Amino acid sequence: QVQLVESGGGLVQPGRSLRLSCTASGFTFNAYGVQWVRQAPGKGLQWVATVWSDGTNEFYEDSLRGRFTISSDNSKTTMYLQMTSVGVEDTGVYFCARVISFAGGRGVYFDLSGQGTLVTVSS
Amino acid sequence: DIQLTQSPSFLSASIGDRVTMTCRASQAISIYLGWYQQKPGKAPQLLIYAASTLQNGVPSRFSGSGSGTEFTLTISSLQPEDFATYYCQNLRSYPPHSFGPGTKLEIK
């Protein structure tokens, strides 16, 4: 079954770190890029980060760069989002998504995402 | 950075209606725009990419158009399962891959 499954969310205190996981199955993991998207409670979607399938490029939303880092373990077909110095503004559901390029690499979209993992930042 | 705006923020319509919503980009992004549908408690689902290309499995009542800075998503005949929130996203390979604020489509 082709799917992505996020995990690692939960309650975390402000200023602490948290690592989210995104595990892929049913497709060739390293043939696709990955995008992280989050959604604060009752709010819209916010792009967090995108990494290319070959790992050559990582892009982060400006306000998150330096605190959030993407990494991967191909042997586990898992992508990680390391979150540091979290604040209440980081509370929300985090989705990972499979990224596909088109138009000769000039465009990207995500066609498959997981069910999301909830991160709650609170003391 | 590219900013996306969507209008209207809320749209009330009836089953069978034809509805159109708009996404505007702060600078030209050619055809690199996507549309996603999200229902409460669920992950967003891709409807359209490259402004007008229908994703596999998406009903043909959905269509997209536009290029440059103005884009539209049209649903030709609303079905009960179409009531959801719709987001546009900048799909240029060079980020930010920002989303618009969304249009919530509600039953009249």
Q: Can you give a write-up of this model?
A:
The complex is a heterodimer of chains A (123) and B (108). Chain A has 123 residues and is mainly β. Chain A has strands at 3-7, 10-12, 18-25, 33-39, 45-51, 58-60, 68-73, 78-83, 92-102, 107-113, 117-121. In chain A, the strands form two sheets. In chain A, strands 2, 4, 5, 6, 9, 10 and 11 form a seven-stranded mixed beta sheet that branches. The mean pLDDT of chain B is 96. Chain B starts with a strand and ends with a strand. Chain B has a six-stranded mixed beta sheet, with no helix packed on it. In chain B, strands 1-3-8-7 form a four-stranded antiparallel beta sheet, with no helix packed on it. Chain B is mostly beta strands and 108 residues long. Chain B has strands spanning 4-7, 10-13, 19-25, 33-38, 45-49, 53-54, 62-67, 70-75, 85-90, 103-107. In chain B, 0% of the residues lie in helices and 47% in strands. Chains A and B meet through strand 5, strand 9 and strand 10 of A and strand 4 and strand 9 of B.
